[in-house]
Amino acid sequence: LALTLPLEGDIAREIGRNVDPDAVFTVRNSLISITAAKNIETFNLVIGTVRDGGSFAPDAGSAGKRALKNILLDFISVNSGHPAIAAKEFHSATNMTDRLAALHILCSRFSETSHAGQALQEFENRHGHDSLTMDKWFATQAITPGPRTLERIIGLTKHNLPALLDGQLDDVIDALHAYDQAEALKAQAGQ
Predict the structure, then answer these.
(1) Which of 33, 147, 174, 181 has a CA 20 to 30 Å removed from the CA of 153?
(2) How far is it, in rounded angstroms, from Cα 140 to Cα 36?
(3) Distance between CA atoms of 86 and 115, rounded to whole angstroms?
(4) Using one digit for the tens of pLDDT, what is the confidence trace for 170-182?
(5) How many secondary structure helices (H) and strands (E) does the chain include?
(6) Which has the closest alpha carbon to 74: 146, 5, 1?
């Protein structure tokens, strides 16, 4: 069983022309939901065996377990239809990999919930001083699907205006670039 599906952009490239980004997004998410529903018992059993309650270890085995756990967390969260599982993982994460994975799930699957907003705020409060980590915070929000993506990106440009005025435009440029790529896919669909 392959647990990671190609990204929407990869699927669109394979289709090549007359791509309907909304259809690609919908079908991909439907496949994720179906996979989660049909395998939920197995996913719940496996996630219990790969959870790491100890201290962070950068070795390949530990990294593989973290990656598998976070993939399964996404499926389990999708199947539940509620952000509580991902929010609990976000708050209990003992390393950045797990915290970012849970944040991404909250933003991509449950973006309009208070759980997502609270996690974003908590992440910013905790890591706002670290520009590399905040790049991930910006990117997570910039690629969050939904009709308010551009509005959210514009809001991010206003988010830390003093830093922007000091010349730290990379975060905004990266966010706008991610949005522009999504819009280019939509434009391709209209050809």
Answers:
(1) 33
(2) 23
(3) 9
(4) 666 676 777 777 7
(5) 10, 0
(6) 5
